[in-house]
Amino acid sequence: MENNTQIPTPTHRLDMHGEPCPYPAIKTLEALRSIGDDDILEIISDCPQSINNIPIDVRNHGFKVLHIDTSTPSVRYFVKR
Amino acid sequence: MNFLEDVKKYLVSFWQPVPAVIALGVLSVYYFGITGTYWAVTGEFTRWGGHALQLFGVDISEWGYFKIMHMDGNIFTRVDGVMIIGMFAGVMAAALWGNNVKWRIPASKIRIYQALIGGIIAGFGARLGMGCNLASLFTGIPQFSAHAWFFTFAMIVGVYLGVKVTQLPFFQSKVKLQKLSCGIDVQSDKSRDEGKVKRFFTFGTFIFLAMVLWAMYLIFIANSQKLGAAMLFGGAFGLIIAKAQICFTSAFRDLFTTGRSQMARAIVIGMVVSSIGVFSYILLGTPPKIMWAGPNAIIGGVLFGFGIVVAGACECGWMYRAAEGQTHFWIVGIGNVIGATLLAFVWDDISVPLATSWPKINLLESFGNYGGLFFNYLLLFLLFLLVLKLEKNYLKKLKGNTNYGK
């Protein structure tokens, strides 16, 4: 996965701590529709299962996954429009 | 040293879900061949509920449901029991190896109620339908039991209803999108303690080895080969569902929430693989597990599908999440046992009209061996088409939406 690339600097953050799936994925898609083309969104989810939904949903809906950091119990996703 | 580092890297990282589900399908076939039963968890949860009632002095010897479930022995002497011990060891090892263990508190009170109520509804529905996503879907359909098909299609309806409810504004996440100022240090909120990560990894290895040694003891010293094998299978099931984050709940739910079909397709492919394996064992003489194909499977399926979506996880999904320290899913687990026990409580009043007066339909008997095999594959093919259709419908609707991304 995109684990070894440089961590991008986010312009927006969704802190989804404590929220179980599917809410992190749903919120991510909502947020992506509301930000600008140059913005980078960071999503923090402590539901590790999000690893099987956020990246795929982001791509399926026509957005880009820049980086995924799985080194801590809270997974961090960096995505853009 | 490098080799060991590579092995470690593999144990730390997440695994790909699609090959993992297929591996689960293959393993569940061998599990059936070796132990004569299918991979299932809720039956044992029901027995735990029974034991809890016994602890409080309740005489359950006349409860019909506990008679069906065979309460004899305990968690250490039953195939299902030691399999679940193995599963817990597997999910704990996986969570510790991957540095995924953290105390997690639900974001709001609503989620706590959702977990408990959803867990109870799912536990009740699963036992009414004689199995959860395993015995009435993933491992039930390959047994050629018609009840599993009734349950599965009803469950998809329940999942749809559950999605509608959990998407109501009241249940939506209240999290706000934060705008960050330029030059913010993105590393600052990273709390990775290398010493802790190392200790967790060692602890995970210890748990896994202890489980393997226990299984070896059962096989070679205690002369309980079946129990030892069940424990090893449980360990493998647990390890795989946790490392690949296999969520049976998400499979059909997310067809309706975000239009993702990956897990649903993987589950159908897993069942295609395991059907032929189970078929070969049945031809060799192992009797399949067939359950009543009556209203119980349909009502149970709808309730179960609704419950798992509200709760956020099914009966094996909460197990690995609980091991990760997600307190939300401890509540789901407790809800499951309560729901299953409630079903046992009302069973004697509802069993005749809803379940036991209906036939146990074995597709291999109804259509002949190869006719039944063909029919099962035809239904699996139709299920696959349904999954693709639901995904397509979702994306089509999305394209009509002006907010759609590029």
UniProtKB/TrEMBL annotation, chain A:
This is Putative sulfur carrier protein YedF. CDD domains: YedF (cd03422). Residues 13-80 form the UPF0033 domain. It holds the Pfam family TusA. SUPFAM superfamilies: SirA-like. InterPro entries: TusA-like (IPR001455), TusA-like_sf (IPR036868), YedF (IPR049570). Coiled coil: none annotated. Belongs to the sulfur carrier protein TusA family. It comes from the Bacteria. Signal peptide: none annotated.
TrEMBL record, chain B:
Pfam families: Sulf_transp. PANTHER family: INNER MEMBRANE PROTEIN YEDE, SULPHUR TRANSPORT DOMAIN-CONTAINING PROTEIN. It is found in: Cell inner membrane. It comes from Sulfurimonas denitrificans (strain ATCC 33889 / DSM 1251) (Thiomicrospira denitrificans (strain ATCC 33889 / DSM 1251)). NCBIfam families: selen_YedE_FdhT. GO terms for cellular component: plasma membrane. It is a multi-pass membrane protein. InterPro entries: Sulf_transp_TsuA/YedE, YedE-like. It comes from the Bacteria. Keywords: Cell inner membrane, Cell membrane, Membrane, Transmembrane, Transmembrane helix, Transport. Its main location: membrane. This is Inner membrane protein. The chain crosses the membrane at residues 21-41, 75-98, 110-128, 148-171, 200-221, 227-252, 264-284, 296-320, 327-347, 367-388. Belongs to the TsuA/YedE (TC 9.B.102) family.
